[in-house]
Write a structure and sequence with these properties.
15% strand; 314 residues; ten-stranded mixed β-sheet; 39% helix; 10 strands; alpha/beta; 11 helices
Length: 314
């Protein structure tokens, strides 16, 4: 049952990160009426939480209207942001407190982060995270898993102490031509090594998570079929143009054909039914150890899934 929805509000962004899958930032936004209709239908079908992303979602011109709609529908929501545009983020959070805000990091130090996101961005996102945490908004610090990422757990502890971030999230890198040009890679063995490092630190009590898709849904099932909500069947993703995809990481990426359909042609309930068939096919392919996506991270996850409890709405 779909309990969580991911929505890409806009393809606009004020940064040009080397690893970003949405790097071709067009001035395109999800239609406000379509988005409101989507949220209402999703709520009627049992969805309890929605995550907004981009691009940079604080650039979406109707963000406040969408936040108001979530409040009216009693939908928990979260925002994933680069943390550099403070005013629109604070305004949205003040209208209806989010379940959490996820701040994107690409290093636990300014040189590492700024090398990917631009000069001065580390200090800005640190300030935003501290301010939101100080205002009582739960914040998560999210890092892209690359060969270059630090595995010094104490540095992540220090970042949490400085910002007040509740959790440290890690998301797999998806290989593209741009990441190869930038020298940012993720060797499959390195990926498994990082997963083991995360698991060891979790056993020590650190709030480290590999979490995609369902950080705000309210059931605590063990995900034995996949490590993320999208493959486990809890989550669905909608791109800015209304197309419905299996995964937030690869929506709209030409190299990965994962579009299930479009809200402009079908209603959400039909697309959810279609998605179930899609996931069952993925499971069959996984059982046969075949390559399901041109994505090392997803392929590795499908072959060797971890068991991760979903996080409950507070």
């Amino acid at each position: 049952m779909i309990r969580h929805l991911g929505v890409l509000l806009t393809a606009r962004c004020n940064l040009k990160c080397a690893h970003c899958l949405q790097h071709r930032h067009f001035n395109r936004d999800i239609d406000l009426a379509l988005c409101k209709e989507l949220l209402a239908e999703a709520r009627s079908l049992g969805v309890v939480g929605v995550s907004f992303s981009g691009g940079e979602p604080t650039l979406y011109p109707h963000l406040n209207a969408i936040v108001d709609e979530c409040a009216a529908l009693s939908l928990a929501y979260s925002i994933t942001t680069n943390g550099t545009l403070l005013d629109p983020l604070l305004e949205a959070c003040s209208r209806h407190i989010p379940h959490h805000v996820t701040l994107s990091f690409d290093g636990v130090t300014a040189p590492a982060h700024d090398a990917i996101r631009g000069a001065g961005t580390f200090d800005r996102v640190m300030t935003t995270t501290r301010l939101l945490s100080g205002l009582g908004v739960d914040t998560y610090a999210q890092f892209t898993m690359t060969n270059q990422m630090s595995l010094d757990a104490e540095m992540y502890d220090a970042l949490r102490d400085r910002t007040g971030a509740e959790r440290i999230l890690f998301v797999p890198l998806i290989h593209t031509v741009d990441t190869s040009k930038a020298g940012i890679g993720m060797d499959p063995r390195r990926l498994h090594g990082i997963k083991r490092w995360i698991q060891r630190n979790r056993a020590l009590g650190r709030p480290f998570h590999i979490a995609l898709g369902d950080a705000i849904i309210g059931h605590g099932e063990q995900r034995t079929a996949a490590p993320c909500g999208y493959l486990a069947g809890h989550s669905l993703f909608v791109d800015w143009d209304g197309s419905v995809a299996l995964c937030c990481q690869t929506a709209g990426v030409a190299e990965v054909k994962n579009a299930i359909g479009s809200l402009r042609d079908d209603d959400l309930s039909r697309l959810i039914s279609r998605r179930r068939v899609w996931v069952e096919d993925l499971k069959r392919q996984r059982a046969a150890h075949s390559r399901v996506f041109e994505c090392d991270a997803c392929h590795a996850c499908l072959q060797s899934p971890s068991v991760e409890p979903a996080h409950a709405v507070q």
